[in-house]
Each structure stands twice: as structure tokens, then as C-alpha cells.
Write a structure and sequence with these properties.
Chain lengths: 86, 579
């Protein structure tokens, strides 16, 4: 029982670490690149897109989708490691 | 075949499909009715969630809105997609592990309190109902505009269809019709977008195409910026809204998305925690297909509009101009009597001199947001069947969202109010009957409100997000991540959050009769973004109250522990005693 508690603690800590990292990326891309830093980024052009505008209307959405799939992959691995699969 | 014949044909086929699916997926238990028996595959659930989520507003209005707002439209694009990251990482897996039927179920049991449950029920009803009325009105407009029946008949046909599949099949019927509706709406959105992208920039992928070059060998966005400059509009790719407001609105939409009961409840329908996570990924993927196409459509439509109509002689205007003028969505008045259309920004003071020198006396054309998607196929000269497809897509978007919302309303009444509050001894059969009666009534009331919309509906739909962000989101997140959060804190937080947000919205929304003026906005935050501040207040109040009250009982801490680990047994007996 004590072991189980200890192992669960490890699982939860790792989960929280993943959340912190993934949500920082989430925040940085949308609010950082898409809103706060949009003017300086717009000085850079990729094809016909000013970069800040691209992040706000395209890039951030791609990043959101990728983040969720990374999370799924990380958590499935973690479930396996701590035998948390249903 | 003409447009109308095509529209009847395509809309008729899609409706027959929805009813076929409904008959195939009839249900016999409350578990089937509320959460489709918990047996929906993650991929199907992802599609259903996407259809559930994307309403008439996403399909019809959003691209048009962005087209007029330029960069600032990003608040909708990011706001209505970024919430899924929060949903996938912070809510869906844990709520699936909790494994009940509704959001008030979670709030009621996690905070061991009937008061908390009631507060959640009231919030869920309020949020869902304001939202559903807008959908019904959308159904009515789509019918009346293209099938030339009046608005009331349109709403009644739409209501009838939803009635059949929602009452028969509950969540199961709704889920599988939503899967079909997703396919219809995404096909209908992509086909014209791809055609137009090929026409304008010779690229079949709209997402890439709007960064490409036009036939004149200049970048489309540069051309758009230049056209904007010539007409006194702000640069298309730069914003005009205050940064703090864009920030707060984006956040309110994200947090609201993650707190909307009809979205959350979709994650109760998959078999496992693992499925809930991946399902959120699929949902966002399916949503992203439309949401990354919409800004391209916006830029194409804007370019087309400016190029086609501006300074053109009246006799020279294309036929769609007349067609849409009769609907009232396009209005033209030749103010300076020169026989040409002048469309420019007459609110821009610095531009007024240029306008005067050009002999322009005011903007002569007003264009409704909705026209951009609806008229796009005509503007680009696409065949009639594409136009009919767009109508069917708009209807699919409105009906799928309406059905999901109606289910939340009926569940709140039959499950949260009757079963878990007023009549705990009601039998399984009785509860199922109550659920069906509740959804039937909800459909009828929504239909009635769709025909006689209260004037403030359009205003309130966008605000449903603020209300969800300021009430549910913090309560659920703390319920999962802070074992020590107690009922006093959660209830106080939810009530102050939603009250603050509603009062601020009322105060600064002239349409709701509020006396406030935009120059008095707190920190420059408009009512659309205030839900974010409401959420912060909710967190602050909850934590403060928690500091002065007692810890939650041991069983509740065990419950919170158990939802964090996919394989940990739920202590069913230990928390059911709070009923």
C-alpha cells in the first residue's frame, strides 16, 4: 500500500511536470507570439505572411493540435510505466 | 437545375440521413440517453465534438467577421481552438475517470453539497439556453433565405428534425448524427474555399494559398493591405484593438470553451481515460481544418469584395449584387450620385480629406458579416450545387450544436434536478421518460424563442463564454488539482465569478440596457473579455474563503485522489452517501 502511494506520487508529479511544460508552450505561442510580440514578428516575412499575423491566424492552431497529441503520447507512456492502464 | 432545386435536393438528402441515423440509434436506458452508453469510439467522438462545437456562428459568420477585422479576428481563431488544449490537459481525462453523466454531477459530488450542485445546474441552464436560441434563429434564416419559406416555417422544420433524433436517440442519436453533420459541414466549407483559392492564387490549399501570389505577381496579403490603405482602412495584417482587450477576449473564449457543459459532456461518452485524451486531440484536429481555412476564406473574400465592387458603375455590377441586395444583407445607396459604388472607411478622420478630394461623400455600401461565406460561391462564380451545399453545411452546423445543447438542458432537468435532488427514488424508466419529456419541451421552447428571438440574443451568445469561464472552469480545475478545496470556497467562487461577469456585461452592453460607456471599461477590457477577470476573481475568492473554513472530508480527498489515476478504484460507496 505504501509502495503504491509512493508510486502514484511519482506518476502525479510527472504528469504535473508535463502539464507545466506543455502549457508554457501553449501560452507562449498564442499569447506571446500571436498577441504580445506580433509587431516585431511582423517585420519578418515568410512567403506572403508577416510572421506575427501567421502565428495569430494559423501557426498557433497547428501548435495546439500538436501539443495535444504530444500530451497523449507522453501520458500513454507514463500510464504504462506506472501500470496505470485501465 | 437551378439553385433552389439543388438546395431542396441536397438539404433533403442530408435530413433523410439524420433521420435514418436516429432510427438506427434508438436507446433504452438513461446511460445510453445521457452518455451514449459510454461506448463511443474516440475518433467518432472527436468528430461529434467538432460538429457539436462548431455552430452556425463558426460556419456562417466567423470568416466574415475576420474578413472585416483582419488581424484582430485572430482572437476568435485562437480563442475557439486554444481552449481544447486546456480541455485535453486539465479537464477531460479526469472528468472521464470520475465517470458520471453531467458537470453538475461532478460539482455536486466533489464539493459534497446540493447547493453547489444547484448553482452548477443554474449556470449550465443559463449558458446552454442563451446559446441554443441563437442556433434556432440561424436555422430559420438559412431556410427562409434559400428555400423561400418564412422564418417561422424554417424554424419549425429544423425543430422537427432535432425533435425526432434527440427524443428517440438521446446522446446516442445525437452523437452519430453529429458525425454525419461534421462530414457535411466540413465538405461544404472546403469545396468553395478550394475553388476560390485556385481562382485567386492558383493553389488548391487555402491555408498556404492566402500567403501566395495573385495573377499580378504580388502577394495577396500585400495587395489587401494596399487596397485597405487606398480606402482608409487599417492594414489588414495589423490590429487596431487595444492589446489588452485582444488578450482578455482570447483568454475568455479559451477558458469558456473549456467550461462549456455541452462540450465537456462529450468526453463522458468514450470508454476510457485514454480515449478521452486522444478524443480531444481528434476533436481539435477536425475543428482546426475549418479554423485554419476560415482566415484564408476571409482574406480571399475581402479581396474579391474590394476588387469587384469598388468604384464600379452600377450598371456594371455582377448579378449576385442584386440577389443579395433583396435580402437586405447588402445595402447600397448612391450618396454622391455619381452612379458608382464607393466603399471606404468614412469613420477614419485622417482619411476624410482624401475622400473629399475623390468626390466621395460617405460610405455607400454596407455588407453584413454573414454574406461573406454565403455569397462567396456566387462571387467566385461557382456552380449552383456548391451554393446548395453551403446551405446544407450551415444547417448541419446549427442543428448539431442545437442538439448538443438541448441534451444538456434536458439532462440538467431530469438527472440533476429530478433524480439527484427532488425525486431521488425515481425509477430508471421514469427518469428516461422524464429526460425525453424534458428534451421535447426544451426543443419546443427553443423553437419558440428562435421564431420570436428576444432582442438581446445575439449579444448574449458571445457572452455565454464569459459566464462559463467565470463559473465552471475554476471550480472544476480546483476540484481536480487542489485536493483541499472545500465546498464553501467553490460555491463562493462560482457565485462571485458569474455575478461579477454578468453585472459587468449588463453594465457595459447598451443592448441589455446598461448605462456604461466604453471609455469607462476597467483596464480597457470589453464585456466580451471580462470573463477572464471573472475567472481570476473566482479563483481568488475561492482560495480566500478556503483559508478561513474547514478542510473537505476524508472521503472527498479520496475521491479527488482517485480521479487522478486512470487505474485506481473508485470508492463508490464512500462518496455516494452525500446524496
Amino acid at each position: 500500500m505504501a509502495d503504491e502511494r509512493l508510486s502514484r506520487k511519482g506518476y502525479w508529479r510527472t504528469n504535473l511536470k508535463y502539464l507545466a511544460i506543455l502549457l508554457s508552450v501553449w501560452f507562449f505561442t498564442s499569447y506571446g507570439l500571436g498577441i504580445l510580440l506580433v509587431e516585431p514578428l511582423n517585420q519578418v516575412k515568410i512567403g506572403g505572411f508577416p510572421l506575427g499575423f501567421w502565428f495569430a491566424q494559423q501557426g498557433s492552431i497547428y501548435v495546439f493540435v500538436i501539443l495535444i497529441f504530444i500530451y497523449v503520447w507522453l501520458m500513454n507512456r507514463l500510464d504504462k510505466k506506472y501500470q496505470q492502464e485501465e | 437545375m437551378d439553385i433552389q432545386a439543388w438546395t431542396f435536393l441536397i438539404v433533403g438528402i442530408t435530413f433523410a440521413l439524420y433521420i435514418g441515423v436516429a432510427i438506427w440509434s434508438r436507446v433504452g436506458s438513461t446511460r445510453d440517453f445521457y452518455v451514449a452508453g459510454g461506448g463511443v469510439s474516440p475518433l467518432a467522438n472527436g468528430m461529434a465534438t467538432a460538429a457539436d462545437w462548431m455552430s452556425a456562428a463558426s460556419f456562417i459568420s466567423m470568416a466574415g467577421l475576420i474578413s472585416f477585422m483582419g488581424y484582430d479576428g485572430a482572437q476568435y481563431l485562437m480563442g475557439w481552438t486554444g481552449g481544447y488544449v486546456l480541455l485535453a490537459l486539465l479537464l477531460a481525462p479526469y472528468l472521464r475517470k470520475f465517470g458520471k453523466f453531467t458537470v453538475p454531477d461532478f460539482i455536486g459530488e466533489r464539493y459534497y453539497s446540493q447547493t453547489a450542485r444547484l448553482v452548477a445546474v443554474v449556470c449550465a441552464l443559463f449558458v446552454s439556453f442563451t446559446y441554443v436560441v441563437g442556433q434556432m434563429k440561424g436555422v430559420g434564416i438559412a431556410f427562409s433565405r434559400f428555400l423561400e419559406v418564412d422564418l417561422a416555417t424554417g424554424v419549425i422544420i429544423g425543430v422537427g428534425i432535432v425533435f425526432i433524433y434527440a427524443v428517440l436517440g438521446g446522446m446516442k442519436g445525437i452523437t452519430y448524427t453529429q458525425v454525419v453533420q461534421y462530414c457535411v459541414l466540413i465538405f461544404a466549407f472546403l469545396v468553395p474555399a478550394i475553388f476560390i483559392s485556385i481562382l485567386l492564387v492558383d493553389n488548391p490549399v487555402p491555408q498556404v494559398g492566402f500567403g501566395g501570389k495573385t495573377a499580378e505577381n504580388i502577394y495577396l496579403l500585400d495587395k489587401l493591405n494596399q487596397l485597405h490603405g487606398e480606402l482608409g482602412f487599417a492594414e489588414y495584417t495589423s490590429g487596431v484593438k487595444p492589446k489588452i482587450d485582444v488578450f482578455f477576449i482570447t483568454a475568455a473564449l479559451m477558458l469558456g470553451t473549456a467550461g462549456l457543459p455541452h462540450v465537456i459532456v462529450r468526453f463522458f461518452t468514450v470508454p476510457k481515460v485514454k480515449d478521452a485524451r486522444i478524443s480531444a486531440g481528434y476533436a481539435l484536429f477536425f475543428i482546426a481544418i475549418l479554423y485554419t481555412t476560415a482566415p484564408a476564406v476571409a482574406a480571399f473574400a475581402r479581396t474579391n469584395l474590394l476588387e469587384t465592387v469598388n468604384n464600379r458603375e452600377i450598371s456594371d455590377l455582377p448579378p449576385w449584387f442584386d440577389n443579395w441586395q433583396t435580402t437586405g444583407l447588402l445595402r447600397f445607396e448612391d450618396k454622391n450620385g455619381d452612379g458608382r459604388v464607393q466603399y471606404y472607411n468614412d469613420l477614419n478622420q485622417e482619411f476624410s480629406e482624401t475622400a473629399e478630394n475623390n468626390g466621395w461623400s460617405g460610405n455607400e455600401l454596407s455588407v453584413d458579416n454573414d454574406i461573406m461565406v454565403l455569397a462567396n460561391p456566387e462571387i467566385a462564380g461557382l456552380p449552383s450545387w456548391v451554393i446548395a451545399l453551403v446551405v446544407a453545411g450551415g444547417l448541419a452546423a446549427a442543428l448539431s450544436t442545437a442538439a448538443g445543447l438541448l441534451l444538456v438542458i434536458s439532462t440538467s432537468i431530469s438527472h440533476d434536478l429530478l433524480k439527484n435532488n427532488l425525486m431521488p427514488n425515481i425509477s430508471e424508466k421514469g427518469e428516461l421518460r422524464a429526460a425525453r419529456i424534458a428534451i421535447a419541451f426544451a426543443v419546443i421552447i427553443a423553437g419558440w424563442a428562435g421564431i420570436n428571438p428576444p432582442g438581446f440574443v445575439a449579444q448574449v451568445v458571445a457572452l455565454a463564454f464569459g459566464l462559463a469561464a467565470s463559473s465552471f472552469f475554476p471550480a472544476i480545475v480546483m476540484g481536480i488539482f487542489y485536493k483541499g478545496m472545500n465546498k464553501q470556497g467553490a460555491i463562493a467562487g462560482m457565485i462571485t465569478g458569474i455575478l461579477f461577469t454578468s453585472v459587468y456585461i449588463w453594465y457595459f452592453k447598451p443592448a441589455l440596457g446598461g448605462p456604461g460607456h466604453p471609455e469607462d471599461y476597467w483596464f480597457g477590457i470589453s464585456p466580451e473579455g471580462i470573463g477572464t477577470l471573472g475567472m481570476i476573481i473566482n479563483f481568488a475568492v475561492a482560495l480566500t474563503v478556503r483559508a478561513f473554513t474547514s478542510a473537505p472530508p476524508h472521503e472527498v480527498r479520496e475521491l479527488t485522489e482517485s480521479i487522478r489515476y486512470p487505474s485506481m478504484d473508485k470508492k463508490e460507496e464512500s462518496y455516494s452517501e452525500f446524496h
